[in-house]
Amino acid sequence: MLLLAFVGLAVVTVPLFRGRLAALAEIRFRSGWLLAVSIGIQVLIISVAPGPRTPLREVAYVGSYVVATAFLWVNRRVSGLWLVGVGAALNLLVIAVNGGVMPAAAHALVRAGLPVALPRFFTNSILVANPRLAFLGDIFAIPASWPLSNVFSAGDVCIALGAALTIHRATGSQLTPSAAGQFSQTLRQPSFRRLWMAQGVSNLGDWVYALAVAATLSTRAGGADLARTLSVLLVCQVAPAAAVGAFVSGPLADRHSRRRLMILADVARATAVVTLLLTPEPSPAHFYVVAGCLGLFGAVFQPSLYASIPNVVDGERLVAANALVGATYHIAVMVGPALGAFLVSSIGSRSVFGLNAVSFIVSALLIMRSRIPATERKGETTSPRRDLVDGLRYVVTTPLVRGVLLVMGVVLMAAATKTPLETLFVRDVLTRGASFATRARVLAMVTTAWGLGMLLGSVASPALTRRWHRERLITISVAIVGLCVLAVSRTTDFSAVLLAWIVAGAGNSIGNISYESLLQERTPDALRGRVFAATETVLDGSYLAGAFLAGVLGSYLRVSGALGVSGSILLVAAALSLVVIPVPLRRKSIGSADGPVQESSHG
């Protein structure tokens, strides 16, 4: 019923955005009987022939989702329907691993006015004692005082948004500007596809590895000692990256083959992780050294990667390429820790260390097969020192680059402040007095909500940047994140926090992709490595400053007040962007700072 109401709302709003409702009749779905069978199964086991929970009903319920997913796959070329498929797949996954039912959170059931006790008859959503992948279950709620009160999941959110997207795309509505199939077209370019796969494999390995390291250290220390150890580990990884980024890796990325630098960085990181397998029980100092190597060579890899993307994709698909890179990172953030926990419990931490080393080697092999053009260098060869000076001068004297780095530095400082405060907010506000297991589940749900929003923002970015200036998208996205953080600091409602975090995550992703694309488009190829190295240095330094600020705020303010300060800093960054990031009336051609100009295609 909730989905039908949302679809009805989407249809009603079509004329408001100059869409043609008659176009809905022109949509041709294939194998419609699959959808009819799926709906029929659910109606039969829940409404027509209700009964107690049995293996047969559980299998039938899971089967209904399998049939529905098959229908979506057959019709995957219908614009917007892919998002419905993502939602259905998420729901199918969580239902399958929980024995054929959708796990519901107790707080969501209570807020929706639904019974918490186990029902006598089979229903699609119940309270499960020890749910698996609880963050994908029914964790959102429409309050009992509202019409159509009910609980719903992250998958349901994707299904509802996908249905609305399909309707508005089919009717030509101006609400959803089209990305014109840019994702599929971008992935058809072999060199980019291999780069994308390489960083995706590596990112997943990194997050699985991070969980394994935390699990290993937690067996040797607890409480404050563990917190200090993990903090030192973080500093050991971030500090070297901040120290060498602009001064070493940037000039290297513009003077030497970026392809070779990325391969070297992957091999070096694989070697560092392999050393953990040479001793039965690596000491904390050993983990610190490995973390330093990962940060150091990561600072070589990242500028080379982002500087290379404009060399392997067409200019008009640059945003789509950055969105794909961002999306795989967000998926790794969402999936990696859960996968890491499963692998650590199944095969042990040492085996996970080995898998992470293998992921770096796979990344290196993929990059080895990529064709990345050599860096364009005009004039006579200069010295490394001159390269460094020229790069720093360009960063400081170019208004766009200087403004973007200033704004994103403030943004990341606020983000680094928010991250530890988020954990305290869950403990002291959302789950006060609850068990550790409950706090862990709630924190996972909160983190997943932000990750889901970032994923949705990555998907929306190509379409949005076709209509609006990237410069103003940065302002809007940062302001949205700041407002959401401020709103969360003023509430204790878990559902409101989750929804705010989805919106904030989307804004976060759109802002990141906008500034990355701007720097890639407006920076000459010969300077691009140094610009992105400087960006990484600023962001790493801001992150360390934000982590320190979080400790100070946590000592003097209540967690809600400290979180409010973080949101206020983000709003300051949004206001600052209006002043320091110029919006040109005419845009430079892609990859050239002084080439021919062309009219902007943005509104």
Brief summary:
The protein has 20 helices and six strands.
Descriptive report:
The chain is an all-alpha fold and 603 residues long. It contains 20 helices and six strands. It has helices at residues 2-13, 32-48, 55-74, 81-97, 106-111, 154-170, 182-187, 190-218, 223-255, 258-274, 284-312, 318-347, 349-368, 384-397, 399-430, 436-465, 470-489, 494-522, 525-556, 559-580; strands at residues 102-103, 125-126, 138-141, 151-153, 586-588, 597-599. The chain has a two-stranded parallel sheet. A two-stranded antiparallel ribbon has the order 3-4. Strands 5-6 form a two-stranded antiparallel ribbon. Helix 5 links the parallel strand 1 (102-103) and strand 2 (125-126). The chain is globular. The two termini are 38 Å apart. Mean pLDDT is 82; it is low at 587-603.
How many strands appear in the DSSP assignment?
6
Low-confidence stretches: 587-603
N- to C-terminal distance? 38 Å
Helix content: over 70%
Highlighted features:
two-stranded antiparallel sheet; single chain; 72% helix; disordered C terminus; two-stranded parallel sheet; mainly alpha
Which helices and strands appear, and what pairs or packs with what?
Blueprint: H1 2-13, H2 32-48, H3 55-74, H4 81-97, E1 102-103, H5 106-111, E2 125-126, E3 138-141, E4 151-153, H6 154-170, H7 182-187, H8 190-218, H9 223-255, H10 258-274, H11 284-312, H12 318-347, H13 349-368, H14 384-397, H15 399-430, H16 436-465, H17 470-489, H18 494-522, H19 525-556, H20 559-580, E5 586-588, E6 597-599
Parallel strand pairs: 1-2
Antiparallel strand pairs: 3-4, 5-6
